[in-house]
Design brief:
five-stranded antiparallel β-sheet, Aminopeptidase, about 30% strand, three-stranded antiparallel β-sheet, about 170 residues
Length: about 170
């Protein structure tokens, strides 16, 4: 299946998912970091991962409206064409939230920061939105670091930390 590349960074392609990504998405969902920080993105089976991917893929045919439905892309490493994670926008309460994850063996190389910065800039220029929020657990130090490095600024605190990009 042909992959449609939406954005390109120094190290990554931010691209539309295909159903061929099912096995890798399922494997990524089983990593400890996903279980800890994104438990709603942990799948019980490849069939469940496939259903989620089919839903996300179906969103590509619509106008991008992250205040109504998610818009999520895969993160593909240029050097080996491996799917290493995802990035997307989705509605959360009354804001638009950015969500992202990079597989454990690819963390610590700046890929998440590269993706978040590039995707956020693109989204503000190409989608009818005014700002994007990064909402992160207070003890998720890695994600806090990514948001800070990608240009998000701290705005408020409740049970989670809220960072804004505009």
């Amino acid at each position: 299946m042909k992959k449609k590349i939406i954005l390109e960074t120094n190290n990554l392609y931010l691209r539309e998912f295909t159903i061929d990504d099912t096995d890798q998405i399922y494997e990524l969902s089983l990593e400890e970091g996903m279980k800890k920080w994104l438990p709603d993105q942990v799948y019980d089976s490849k069939e469940e991962a496939s259903q989620i991917l089919n839903f996300l893929i179906s969103q590509y045919d619509s106008i991008i409206e992250p205040n109504k439905s998610p818009y999520v892309l895969g993160l593909e490493l240029k050097e080996n064409n491996e799917l290493i994670g995802h990035i997307g926008l989705s509605p959360y309460q009354d804001v638009i939230e950015i969500g992202y994850a990079v597989g454990e063996k690819y963390q610590g190389f700046g890929y998440a920061t590269e993706a978040v910065n590039t995707f956020s800039n693109w989204a503000l220029k190409n989608i009818d939105i005014d700002n994007i929020w990064g909402i992160v657990a207070q003890n998720n130090k890695g994600s806090i670091k990514v948001l800070n490095k990608a240009g998000y600024t701290y705005h408020k605190k409740d049970k989670k930390l809220w960072y804004k990009y505009k």
